[in-house]
Design goal:
With 321 residues, this protein is mainly alpha-helical. The chain is built from 14 helices and four strands. It has one domain. It starts with 14 loop residues before the first helix and ends with a helix.
């Protein structure tokens, strides 16, 4: 398997993901929502929950899964290493959370449904979300959407800010973010077939009847689905289905849509260049100029000292109250 040392998420992020995130961040109310989210929710409660309710994967817990996970972390050059949990949930699903302390949770149902290459696909996909910085926005989206459901009971001052436009933008961005994570999985697997078979199983896989399901037939189904767009009315139906036409808005693209997007990228020159080692790299985190001028160092020291004085003054004023 290839290892993409120093790779930046910008090397493989889907342009629709970038566009949707930019639209989301420019909407009125987004900045306030961010502040309230960090203040009231953020990532620590979720980490504590999973530490208490799930199994933390490691060298002596699900060692095979842990080895697959470590290889994916290495191949996408992700630091620090996220925490991996297995949750006793039968539905085949996985999700990633957190930024300062990122984590991935795999539902136990995945372990029985997927083979090792497909499990690697799921893990690499979730690591792709972490690599792209999706996780905090995903948590914000979940929180904002659930909050908007009970908008009349809000006490955080968000009643006038979480509007329909912001909710639609969150859903649109979440769907496009999946395309970038799918690309990360393809880079790690270096083979599109297990990635596509994973999508097929997530759509309707069965362990018992696995020998009666054909990936080639699922690919043809994806092609037939794309052909539906020849009728403009079907395009309207697709839009409505994604955006609440049957009661709930969809957070993920249809698997057949994801398969089509991924096949297109798999055949692209951009993908071939990345596989050849020609990709955008991230700057080295924590790098400093060791030849910085002395006056710059002195200025920084003075700023730190001034900040420390302000902290001490604030402590004194508080103690006098």
């Amino acid at each position: 398997m290839p290892t993409y040392t120093g790779i930046s998420s910008d090397a493989f992020r889907h342009p629709l993901d970038r566009e949707a995130e930019e639209t989301l961040r420019n909407l009125p109310g987004f900045d306030l929502l961010t502040r309230k989210f960090v203040e009231f929710v953020y990532e620590r409660p979720q980490f504590v929950y999973h530490m208490g309710s799930s199994i933390e994967v490691g060298p002596r817990q699900y060692s095979t899964v842990y080895q697959i996970f470590r290889e994916c972390v290495r191949d996408l050059d992700i630091t620090p290493e996220p925490t991996l949990f297995i949750s006793q949930t039968p539905m085949a699903n996985a999700y990633s959370l957190g930024q300062d302390r990122p984590s991935i949770t795999l539902n136990a149902g995945l372990l029985d449904l997927m083979d090792e290459a497909e499990l690697q696909t799921v893990i690499a996909h979730e690591l792709g979300h972490i690599k792209c910085g999706h996780t905090i926005l995903i948590q914000m989206a979940i929180w904002a959407i659930s909050t908007a459901t009970y908008i009349g009971e809000l006490t955080f001052g968000l009643g006038n800010f979480i509007g329909t436009g912001l909710i639609y933008a969150f859903y649109e961005w979440r769907r496009k973010a999946e395309l970038s994570a799918d690309r990360a999985a393809l880079l790690v697997l270096d083979d599109i077939h297990p990635v596509m078979s994973t999508m097929m199983k997530m759509a309707g896989g069965s362990h018992k009847y696995a020998n009666e399901v054909s990936l080639n037939e699922f690919i043809r189904q994806s092609e037939r689905y794309q052909d539906l767009d020849r009728d403009s009315l079907n395009q309207v139906y697709k839009f409505l289905l994604y955006n609440g036409g049957q009661g709930a808005m969809l957070s993920h693209p249809f698997p057949v849509d994801r398969l089509s997007y991924l096949q297109e990228w798999w055949q692209s020159e951009e993908y071939r260049q990345i596989r050849s080692g020609n990709y955008q790299k991230s700057p080295v985190e924590g790098a400093v100029d060791v030849n910085a001028k002395q006056e710059e160092a002195d200025a920084l020291r003075r700023q730190v000292e001034e900040l420390q004085r302000e902290i001490e003054q604030a402590k004194q004023r508080r103690s006098q109250l």
